[in-house]
Amino acid sequence: MQKFIRVFFFSVFSLMPFSTQASAGLDFLKIVPSAREQALAGVGVASSSGAAATYFNPALMQNRGISGALFSQNFWFMDTYASYAATNFNGEKSAVGISLYWLSVRDIPVRSSPTAEPDGYFNSQNAAISLSYSRKMSERLTLSLTGKMLYEKIYINDATGFAGDISAAWRLPESPLSFGAALQNMGSMGKLLSESSELPTSFRLGAAYAFLLDGKGKENTLLLELNHVSVFSDDSYQALGVEYAFREFLWMRLGYLLGNDSRSVSFGFGVKYENFLFDYAYVPFTNELGSANVLTLQFLY
After folding, report:
1. Model pLDDT for residues 262-283, shown as the tens digit of each residue
2. How far does the signal peptide extend, from start to end residue (predicted)?
């Protein structure tokens, strides 16, 4: 266990200086795929669980003891569609997660000269396949490593690459306060025609606190989570999410994003029926970009 911890923290501090030099590409990796977390303004590094944690912080895959499969469809703005499928398998002290994230931008015009009508249209494609492993180091600390295979295609040119994530979750036993951190998308891409796209390497840090409203277990809970996100090639931003849970059946969510010029407020809800959980998020944008709708369906087992 001590050897694993040493390797974990050596990787974090040795890779961070390299990551800060990158300029962003493959921006689809920054789009939050799940409806719950989108409704909460993108927070989740300290509170996500199950298959949704494969994106935010795989160290939380065992959070709440949830194993399951997830499919999410993101109807983003300007004919952009993102889909996410993930599953996690929890053991006594470790967990494994697998995810597939892909995005397409449709009907991009092609012109060989400045004309009113384009010569034609094409679609842009991006995809990421991830494999995550997490292990409980103690009752308080869980660590996780993730490997990713990446693919991008623009017009007739395509490229592949590899990336990795390192994440951690910390929680005191029987405490409503939890912390999470994740260093994501460290790696490189092959050349797309003549140049390589740089990855949007980012660092997420968050804290979550759950208030028990009725004092009778966790049936009625108010969860607050605050995240700080630094995308090393762009500006940092902060996000605050509030989630009210009613009898582990209905969830109401509200989020607010600071430091983003195109969006601020988001909201949504979740409903559980037996082993199925449905989540919805609505994200309005400014600057006449329209709005986004995110739908997520989970099967818990």
Report:
1. 889 999 999 999 999 999 999 9
2. 1-24
Look up residue 130 and give its amino acid. Answer: S
Q: Which of 71, 115, 54, 99 is nearest to 278 (CA)?
A: 71
pTM for the whole structure? 0.85
Please state, as a whole number, how many other Cβ atoms lie within 10 Å of the Cβ of residue 2.
7
In this structure, the number of other CB atoms found within 10 A of the CB of residue 282 comes to: 16
The three-state DSSP-derived secondary structure of the chain is CHHHHHHHHHHHHHHHHHHCCCCCCCHHHHCCCCHHHHHCCCCCCCCCCHHHHHHHCHHHCCHHHCCEEEEEEEECCCCEEEEEEEEEEECCCEEEEEEEEEEEEEEEEECCCCCCCCCEEEEEEEEEEEEEEEEECCCCEEEEEEEEEEEEEECCEEEEEEEEEEEEEEECCCCCEEEEEEEEEEEEECEECCEECCCCCEEEEEEEEEEECCCCCCCEEEEEEEEEEEECCCCEEEEEEEEEEECCCEEEEEEEEECCCCCCEEEEEEEEECCEEEEEEEEECCCCCCEEEEEEEEEEC
Please, what sign has the CA dihedral across residues 30, 222, 48, 143? positive
* CATH number listed for the domain at residues 27-112+119-300: 2.40.160.60
Confidence of residue 26 (pLDDT cuts 50, 70, 90): confident
Kindly indicate the confidence band of residue 22, based on its pLDDT and cuts at 50, 70 and 90.
Answer: very low
CB contact at 8 A, 126 and 28: yes
